[in-house]
Amino acid sequence: MKVATWNVNSIKVRLEHVLAWLDREQPDVLALQEIKTKDEDFPVDALRARGYSSIVSGQAGYNGVALVSRIAPAEVAHGIGGYVDEQKRVLGATYAGVRIYSLYVPNGENPESPKYRYKLGWLAALRNLLSVELTRYPQLAVAGDFNVAPDDRDVYDPAAWAGSVLCTPAERAALASITELGLRDSFRLFDQPPGKYSWWDYRAGNFRRNRGLRIDLVLASRSLSQTCTNCRIDPEPRGWDRPSDHAPVVAEFSTQ
DNA sequence: ATGGCCTGCAACGCAGGA
Fold first, then answer.
1. Using 50, 70 and 90 to split pLDDT, how confident is the model at A216?
2. Binning pLDDT at 50, 70 and 90, where does residue A255 land?
3. Which helix (H) or strand (E) holds A143?
4. Which of A125, A146, A147, A232 is 20 to 30 A removed from A198 (C-alpha atoms)?
5. Which of the 48-67 residues on chain A come under 7 Å of nucleic strand B at their beta carbon?
């Protein structure tokens, strides 16, 4: 099973990129973030014409996540149960026995912002959700924009980013408390060359200079991670005309 | 170069992203 994640920064603007990328990569499941559209405006028909069905948790203008797949979804779950959140950031479903989540973790703005406290509370609630999900679904993948660079290898200039949002010790600890449940960062299951990132600021020619961060992850439960055959970031769409600022990340599993 | 962009919404500037 091929599972991918991509923060598209507006599905309306990026639809042609997504369709072209699906045609080429043929993932079984693609988790999308920042679709920035209401459910009824999601391009279900264009995706269906490519052989993909869609489930959507959208909102107007901001946030919004979706799962598009060649496999029929079951047991669809919206949001974090028991945690009230107007912002649409979590969508889960079961695909051929594998539980898959599309996540859009809050950005946090800066460590002094109320949005940063929201982010840390949100991550704590997510941890609770995933600890329960792991008891129900041994095969669990959590794919999304985590808005946390797990460690300094995931930052082009760790000294410049030290203490900044996406890199603070509290954010990294919150992410570690999730991976310590038994959810492994698929990318780090394999030897990887340095300088591999999934997001580059639109400004300052940062992509051309590879000044990026790795904040888009596919986490896999112990059982699922044992079947992982590779994980890679595809930087190509970041170089296309009018790109998202994020690149897709792909993990492959040898389940059936 | 110590800064450079992009999106949606509602308008012609803002909020938000990371």
1. very high
2. confident
3. strand A140-145
4. A125
5. 60-62
For helices A169-179 and A114-136, give the axis angle rounded to 10 degrees.
10
Which residue from A204, A191, A211, A200 is spatially nearest to A237, judged by alpha carbons? A200
- CA atoms of A240 and A17, how far apart (whole Å): 8
Enclosing H/E stretch for A236: none
Q: Which residue is nearest to nucleotide B3 (CA to C1')?
A: A204
The SS3 call for residue A209 is coil
> Which amino acid, A62?
Y
DSSP of A164-188: STTS-HHHHHHHHHHHTTTEEEGGG
Q: From CA A226, how far away is CA A233, in angstroms rounded? A: 20
Residue nearest to nucleotide B10 (CA to C1'): A61
Sign of CA dihedral A25, A28, A32, A37: positive
Q: A245: Cβ under 7 Å from strand B? A: yes
Rg (CA), chain A: 17
Q: Comparing C-alpha atoms, which of A151, A129, A148 is closest to residue A140?
A: A129
Can you give the distance from the CA of residue A143 to the C1' of nucleotide B15 in angstroms? 27
Residue A9 (CA) to nucleotide B8 (C1'), in angstroms, measures 11
Given a cut of 70, is residue A149 above it in pLDDT?
A: yes
Is the Cβ–Cβ distance between A183 and A140 less than 8 Å?
yes
Torsion of CA A116, A214, A245, A31, to 10 degrees: -90
Q: Is the CB of A109 under 7 A from strand B?
A: yes
Element (DSSP H or E) covering residue A22:
helix A11-25
